[in-house]
Amino acid sequence: MRIHDISIPIHPAMIVWPGQPGVATRYLSQISAGDRSTVTHLSLSVHTGTHMDAPCHFVAGQEGIDQLDLKTLVGPALVVDATHAAELSAEVFDVLAIPAHTERLIVRTTNSQLWDDPAHDAFAEAYVGVTPSGAQWLVDHGVKLIGVDYLSVAPYDDLVVPHQILLGAKVVIVEGLNVQAITPGVYELVCLPLKIVGSDGSPVRAILIERGE
Ligand SMILES: [Zn+2]
Fold first, then answer.
1. N or C, fewer C-beta in 10 Å, the chain?
2. Beta strand 185-193 pairing with 201-210
């Protein structure tokens, strides 16, 4: 069995959504300062790094992250390559040869290259995102979980409608994945949010499991 970690590291210098406070840590106690134990206080947006959006993120009154059906968050997932695409529209999904009944879909785009690029030291507004037609395509084809490799599923200049279409149809959105090293194919996905009551999102640790013969 091989485990591929497709999560990005969380640390104070990491790239976060424009205008939002970044990750901050401080010690509540520290062994090196003479305390019995080391305890860190962590402050971060629930949409930091590799994370999951809950329906209430864009649809008022809808479920929080603690209400998601765990069956959706664990199971077979198809990783497809779309590094040729500047956006993820219905036309792009149509030609990706995604089999019917694909419930969990992870799209590898040029975004994934950014995570390992030292020159990527600020939020990249020109990332590849799912357009409204792409979001509708996913809903119409029964996709229950969509994973993308930058900090939002939707393009920076068109954030609202793709989120509303997906979250309104209870499609789980996982954002901020790094699938640069992942060969397209089917893996077993595990990505679980923290059980934060009523939250509009949560960081997740996302892994793809590859089982040998
Ligand atoms: Zn989010």
1. C
2. antiparallel
Of 11, 57, 84, 120, which is the active-site residue?
A: 57
Distance 176 CA to ligand 1 centre (A): 8
In a domain, residue 14? The reply is no
Number of domains in the chain: 1
> Is the CB of residue 15 less than 8 Å from the CB of residue 120?
yes
**Model-wide pTM > 0.90:** yes
23 occurs within a structural domain:
no
11 catalytic per annotation? no
Residue 72: give the domain boundaries.
2-8+45-210
CA of 37 to the centre of ligand 1 (A): 33
| Average pLDDT over every residue of 6-19 | 96
For residue 113, give every residue at least 6 positions away whose Cβ sits within 8 Å of its Cβ, in sequence order, or none: 180
213 Cα–ligand 1 center, Å? 36
Tens of pLDDT, residue by residue over 201-210, are 999 999 999 9
